[in-house]
Amino acid sequence: MDKIFKEDSINKGVKNLAKMIKESEYTVVLTGAGMDTESNIPDFRGKDGWWENIDPIQVASIHTFESNYPLFHEFYSMRIKTLEGVEPHKGHYVLADLEKKGLIHSIATQNVSGLHQKAGSNNVYELHGNIRTIRCNHCNKEVKLEDFLAGENCSFCGKKALRPNVVLFGEALPIDVWIKAEEDIKKSQLLIIIGTSLEVYPVNFLPMYAKGKIVLINNEDINANYEFDIKLIGKAGEILKELEKYVE
Ligand SMILES: [Zn+2]
Fold first, then answer.
1. Residues contacting 89, CB < 8 A, separation 6+
2. b/e string for 170-201 if b means 16 or more Cβ within 10 A?
3. DSSP code of 114?
4. Which residues, 6+ apart, have CB-to-CB distance to 68 below 8 Å?
5. pLDDT per residue as tens digits for the range 128-175
6. Where in the chain are the domains?
7. Which residues form the Deacetylase sirtuin-type domain (predicted)?
8. Given CB 3.0 to 4.6 Å as the disulfide criterion, which of 79, 91, 158, 172 pairs with 240?
9. Domain 1-41+88-128+173-248 is of which CATH architecture?
10. pLDDT of 98-135, one tens digit each?
């Protein structure tokens, strides 16, 4: 049976989680979009812009990169600019602090924002890549973000092929990163899943590797094929801020 804590009982759930963290010798965190939304990431779909009619699944694809580079470039330039000035929230800092204290080992994230690293987390597996680092799709060399934003050609091979280091629709996931995340989850005595409804393949498979306890922190309850030891339903930032009090 799941144990669900929310609203009035959230404090009790947080204390339970703090105890689990202290008892666990190997804790891994898995985060999704819900972790970042509290950082007020602006919606890139403008109210009156033509972006409103653009389907990100179409544009954020290897097909658009190859067939319509100007559209691809404009889309990602805009996405990168909307993330400028977005800061980690308290929850990101709490996770970074727990890593420094040796209480969590790593974070696997579906987010491409880089906010975990910005908050100070070091051991982060970016399952879908990072939008603020740029590489050449032709020669694979890393180039400066400014080169991409300026619409320049690759400074190494001269091709017009610069792109963010994110996984595009139609592309394979970064297998090395996924294997490391899987291995860590297999070793974990505690897996804390934050801000993801785990609906998407293959990320919904990752918790199945866990042999220890599994905890969910999410703004709504979810159904999954695995049992959670406890579920904390509420805002990730607030729950993690509360958690900080009990893991000193
Ligand atoms: Zn190149």
1. 38, 39, 237
2. eeeebeebbeebbebbebbbbbbbbbbbbeee
3. -
4. none
5. 999 999 999 999 999 999 999 999 999 999 999 999 999 999 999 999
6. 1-41+88-128+173-248, 42-82+130-166
7. 7-248
8. 91
9. 3-Layer(aba) Sandwich (3.40)
10. 999 999 999 999 999 999 999 999 999 999 999 999 99
Whether the pTM exceeds 0.85: the reply is yes
The superfamily CATH assigns to domain 42-82+130-166 is SIR2/SIRT2 'Small Domain' (3.30.1600.10)
CA distance 168 to 217: 27
Q: Are 124 and 100 in contact (CB under 8 A)?
A: no
Question: Tokens at residue 180, please?
Answer: 């490391």
Going from the Cα of 65 to the center of ligand 1, the distance in angstroms, rounded, reads 15
Q: How far is the CA of 36 from the centre of ligand 1 (A)?
A: 32
- Residues of the binding site: 136, 139, 154, 157
User: Which residue ranges make up the annotated binding site for Zn(2+)?
Assistant: 136, 139, 154, 157
| Residue 242 pLDDT grade (very low, low, confident, very high; cuts 50, 70, 90) | very high
Q: CB of 107 within 8 A of CB of 116?
A: yes
